Structures are given as structure tokens and as C-alpha cells.
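Hi team,

Below is the intake form for Aldo/keto reductase from Rhizobium sophorae. Please confirm the fields before the structure is written into the shared record.

FORM ID: S-0412
PROTEIN: Aldo/keto reductase
ORGANISM: Rhizobium sophorae
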Amino acid sequence: MTKEAMVAGIPQMGYGTWNRSADEAHQGVIWALEAGCRHIDTAQGYGNEQDVARGIKDAGVARNEIFITTKVKPDNYGPGAVMPSVRESLEKLRVDQVDLLLLHWPSPHNKYPLADYLGQFAEVFDAGLARQIGVSNFTKALIDESIHLLGSRTITTNQVECHVYMQNRPIIDYCEKLGIAVTAYSPLARGAVVGDLVLEEIGKARGATSDQIALAFLIAKGHVVIPSSSKRGRIMQNFEARKITLTLAENKRIEGLEKGMRLVNGDWCPVWDV
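The structure came back. Fields below:
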């Protein structure tokens, strides 16, 4: 693994592959690895695990230098379904073990009991198919229940939407209190930060873009960030954001951009903490 900042054993700057088609995921992974990124985030639900594997292979970076995250989709939470789905993911990713395995969502509308699919998830971890485990889009109540059900097993991270316009303090503060790392998805608010006047002004003195300042803010908070792009220049630019150090005053200004702009809020979501 290259010497990058780590959070709970996870490289702090990753490359996200959500909404990336087969070719985009393949090429994006190559470009991210060329930029020096060593954390690749995918999921069963993205339908591109095999393309991520192709990108890793074609980039020629050794497996032991890359941190791979994937996620179990709720469709695979049924009785006896979690383990086979993870084995299929490993086959697609061409690995024997992922570095981090997440439950992608709480079961929508509580179709499957948490105790049932979390129990299967624990079996996957105990079988050595994942080095670390975590959750995504879990609320405080679900985190508490999961900790109880997992016993001595550790929840490494909760991956949640987080960006300058929706800093998600209730769940983030709770995770931090429990020692659970936060992984911020949609850290650029799906491009909404581009051209933000406050971010541009802060970036101007550093020759940095509004995107880079938005990422630097989340990094300063100690979050793992997984920005995504299909453009080589933007992927390189995002990765360079880790070198930016903001002042306390600048961080305070950026905190003031909060406006509760939640981008992910469908009927499959849990009742969010507020």
C-alpha cells in the first residue's frame, strides 16, 4: 500500500464507481490508480465489479497495494443468500478476499429482519471473505442494534451521504462518538459544488478548484471520501485535494454552507436521523 493517509485502516481518498458504466468503471479505475489512488469502491448494485477488476488488472498494480470495497445489495439479504452473493462478488473482482465489505442499505421497508441478514454477514466475515466489515446508510438505531448483534466484531465504517451542503451531523457525530469511521459518498454533491463562490474564493489563493476545497473540507473532518468522475483530469484533480490544508477560519466558513440538501431520499431509505 502506498503511504497515504488512513482512517480506520482505510485509505482516506478513494475512487467511487457509482453510476459508472462498464467502460467508464474500467477506464476510471485505471486513471485513478495511475493518479496514485489505492482505494477503489464498488458494489453489487452498481453492476460493475467485473469492470473494476479489469481496470485493476490493466493498470498493473499489485493486489496487495489496492484497498477494495464492495457492498452487499438488499436483494441478497434473503435466507442463505448473503454468502453466495459475496462469493460471486469475489469471483467478479478476481480476489479471494475484499478489504472492506459493507451492507449497502438497511433492508427497504424491513423486508428482511436485521438480525437475519446481519447474522449471515457475520458468517461471511468469520469465513475470512472480508478483512473488515461495515455498513452504509445506517441510522443511529440501526447502528446500535448492529453493534449488539455483531458482538465482538467491529463496524469499521458507516458510508453515508456527506458534502458541504448536507454535512449530516446527527449520524456523523454519533458514529464518531462510537469510534466508527465515516465514509462520505457524493462528497461533491453530484457536481453542485462546482462554481460555489465561497469554495472558489478559498481555493483561489491556492490555485485550487471549488471541488478540491470541498474534498479538503471533508478530509479535514477526518472522513474517508470517495469522489467519482469519468474524466481523467477530474480524477487526477480530485486526488490532489488531499494535499490541501485549510485554516480553522476557512473550515468555519465552509461549515456555514450547510443547507440540508439531501440528494438521496427515496422510499427505500430508512427514516433519517435529524
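SUMMARY LINE: Residues 53 and 93 are 5 Å apart (CA to CA).

Thanks, M.
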